[in-house]
Design a protein that fits this description.
With 250 residues, the chain is α/β, with parallel strands linked by helices. The chain has 2 domains: 144 residues, HAD superfamily/HAD-like (Rossmann fold, 3-Layer(aba) Sandwich); 69 residues, GTP Cyclohydrolase I, Chain A, domain 1. The protein contains 12 helices and 6 strands.
Length: 250
């Protein structure tokens, strides 16, 4: 799959890292942004505007579609929901709710501070799964797109696209942060010592019993993304190019 990537600003060079850098790959949903609350708000909106039966029907379609595609497709589920009643104009308001949702208010406390902190150690990249329309909009309107200067990759299954990630952002070492242990375990199995995995234990996936018992522990576990501001991550992967003192030229 071709990833969604931000284009460089006019007049600016696209940043390409060198193998001496450390690249931080940060998941979006339930890692930087509280997607559980977004879903709760959507459920409440559906029940209020359409009733509990319609809410449950939409959510059943949503889960079925996620099983088919391998990622959450809110707008795709809405389109399928619409096929049951093409005359229901209330669906137009439902799409507006999704598109205009205030995602910036759903960032976890300290999320942007963490990105700024990691920028002093290496290069930050948002690495997410999702659809081609709603997921980029979520990342843009939350402020995350700007926070990483447009370094955004969105795949269907990001753990299967590591060669593409490495080609786009080559690095000496990667640090991957995610709320899903199965993704971290897969990436660790492929990249081995080339990667440090960080399990951010936020959201319903992170606390699910299957997530906690079926996969090996990550290299580092934090309870909140904001905790990373005070973590000495350089101790896990060695000194970065960004943190080394500049040598004097002869």
């Amino acid at each position: 799959m071709i990833p969604i990537v931000a284009q460089p600003h006019a007049g600016c060079d696209d940043h390409v890292t060198t193998p001496d850098d450390v690249v931080f790959l940060l998941d979006c949903d339930n890692t930087l942004l509280d997607n559980d609350i977004v879903q709760d708000d959507l459920r409440d909106h559906l029940a209020r505007e359409f009733g509990a039966i319609s809410r449950d029907r939409y959510w059943a379609i949503f889960e079925h579609l996620r099983g088919e595609l391998g990622y959450a497709d809110y707008l795709g589920a809405l389109q399928r929901y619409r096929l049951a009643d093409l005359t229901d104009t209330r669906l137009l308001l439902m799409s507006s709710f999704l598109i205009d949702y205030p995602f910036a208010s759903r960032l976890y406390p300290g999320a942007l501070d963490v990105i700024r902190h990691l920028d002093t150690l290496g290069l930050t990249v948002v690495l997410s799964d999702g659809d081609v329309v709603f997921q980029p909009r979520k990342i843009q309107h939350s402020g995350l797109w700007a926070a990483v200067d447009g370094r955004v990759l969105i795949y269907i299954h990001k753990e299967q696209m590591l060669d593409s990630v490495a080609a786009r952002y080559p690095a000496r070492h990667y640090v991957v942060m995610d709320d899903k242990l199965h993704i971290l375990a897969t990436i660790k199995k492929i990249w081995r010592d080339r990667v440090t995995t960080v399990f951010v234990r936020q959201g319903h996936y992170a606390h699910g019993p299957d997530n906690l018992t079926a996969y090996p522990a990550a290299d580092l576990t934090v309870e909140r993304i904001g905790d990373l501001v005070t973590c000495d991550l350089s101790a896990l992967f060695g000194e970065t190019a960004a943190s080394r003192p500049q040598q004097e030229q002869p």
